[in-house]
Design a protein that fits this description.
Number of strands: 7
Order of helices and strands: HHEHEHEEHEHHEE
CATH topology: Rossmann fold
Oligomer: single chain
Shape: globular
CATH architecture: 3-Layer(aba) Sandwich
Length: 200
């Protein structure tokens, strides 16, 4: 979907598309990190960026959907985040940050996008990426059905240069207790989760 299609989806969403908080596995990782500077890539309607800001992070949320960002800014706590309408292929931060996080960004060049985001992390900082795994198609989970844009552990780990230490890179299973969409859904879903730390 392009920016115009996402704008339309957010306009029709009656308050937002995604669940109120980040995925449970992402929350678990981020809760162990000391608040500092962060970028939430493909922030959508802002759930991860606001969650971070509420915990003391200085966070920038970027997305190419103006409608999604309008919903994000209107969230309680949304005024604590810097919202930027931008494309991950073109935008550059003014400085390296302590955390780059991205939830469910699926592109034709996902590996290149992850590599680009990794370049924004300062030494000692973390990169956290989660998205639908290619095995999600077989279990009937919500998400894209094109295997070419879905994740695998090999794709995400292969996007990093030798300057990173991989803490986790694995398939995880989500249930309805950790639904991606606002209002939830019953199906089990398979994601790929990456947590890596820049060493140099």
């Amino acid at each position: 979907m392009d920016a115009a299609q996402w704008d339309e989806r957010y306009r029709a969403s009656a308050g937002g598309v995604w669940a109120a908080e980040p995925p449970a596995a992402v929350q678990e990782i981020l809760a162990d990190l000391a608040p500092a500077t962060a970028i939430d890539v493909a922030t959508g309607d802002g759930r991860t960026a606001v969650w971070l800001a509420e915990r003391g992070w200085s966070c920038t949320g970027i997305d190419f959907s103006g409608e999604g960002l309008a919903l994000a800014a209107a969230r309680p706590g949304g005024d604590a985040v810097t919202w930027v309408r931008a494309d991950v292929h073109e935008w550059e931060p003014a400085a390296f940050v302590d955390l780059v996080v991205s939830c469910y960004l699926h592109l034709a060049d996902s590996a290149a996008a992850v590599a680009r985001m990794a370049g924004w992390v300062k030494p000692g900082g973390a990169l956290v990426v989660i998205g639908h795994d290619v095995e999600n198609i077989a279990v009937g989970g919500h998400g894209p059905s094109d295997p070419a844009i879905l994740y695998t552990p090999e794709l995400l780990s292969g996007a990093l240069d030798g300057g990173f230490r991989i803490e986790r890179c694995e398939r995880i299973t989500r249930t309805s207790a950790d639904a991606e969409l606002r209002g939830g859904h019953a199906a089990t879903a398979i994601d790929t989760l990456l947590h890596a730390v820049r060493m140099r």
